[in-house]
Design a protein that fits this description.
Chain lengths: ~110, ~110
């Protein structure tokens, strides 16, 4: 079955440092979504990427979708303590109505 | 709008007991999902319902049953709970068009002893 690998599993940064999490799929995706889950909370949708090579920005967050539509990344510039949480990618294969989630990257930011 | 609601928030069961987790959404979404989340394992799909009257197995359906009671409600039943079913359970739904982003409920923390 489809697999979505996400690295790293965990990252601890100092406030102000940058952070990147990477997502790789075993199959070509029709689109990829990113979610954030705060400690003790539920996943919240951040963004969806659809086009090959697409880049989208949300303030300090930059999302990329690879040319082959099999990988994606989320980059946070100058992290803040409010960025703490686990970031999940979730891929959808054409013709399927379900998402396959990566295992997530837990981000800890120290002030 | 309340979004996606789940009950109960917490539950402790003994091995072999049964229970039903309730989920409801008030956003008129067609598709609804049940996930379980275990440490280091991400979100794994248990069952989903693409529309009222249909249900399908996900990645980890064994030990669970579901009912799509109507468009709003999608319940998850554990017939004979096992310690391996200790987890956090999330219900989600998504709209029939647009980005198909999933809206998650607050979760149910289940412990089976």
């Amino acid at each position: 079955g489809q697999q979505v690998m996400q690295i790293p599993q965990y990252q601890h940064v100092q406030e102000g440092e940058d952070f990147t999490t990477y997502c790789n799929s075993s199959t070509t995706l029709s689109n990829i979504q990113w979610y954030k889950q705060r400690p003790g909370g539920h996943p919240v949708f951040l963004i969806q990427l659809v086009k090959s090579g697409e880049v989208k920005k949300q303030k300090r967050l930059t999302f990329q979708f690879g040319e082959a539509k099999k990988n994606s990344s989320l980059h946070i510039t100058a992290t803040q303590t409010t960025d703490v949480g686990t970031y999940f990618c979730a891929g959808r294969v054409s013709g399927y109505s379900t998402l396959t989630f990566g295992k997530g990257t837990m981000l800890l930011v120290s002030p | 709008n309340a979004g996606v609601t789940q009950t109960p928030k917490f539950q402790v069961l003994k091995t072999g007991q049964s229970m039903t987790l309730q989920c409801a959404q008030d956003m008129n979404h067609n598709s609804m999902y049940w996930y379980r989340q275990d440490p280091g394992m991400g979100l794994r799909l248990i069952y989903y319902s693409a529309s009222e009257g249909t249900t399908d197995k996900g990645e980890v359906p064994n030990g669970y049953n579901v009912s799509r009671l109507n468009k709003r409600e999608f319940s998850l039943r554990l017939e004979s709970a096992a310690p391996s079913q200790t987890s956090v359970y999330f219900c989600a739904s998504n709209p029939p068009q647009g980005t198909y982003e999933q809206y998650f409920g607050p979760g149910t923390r289940l412990t089976v002893t």
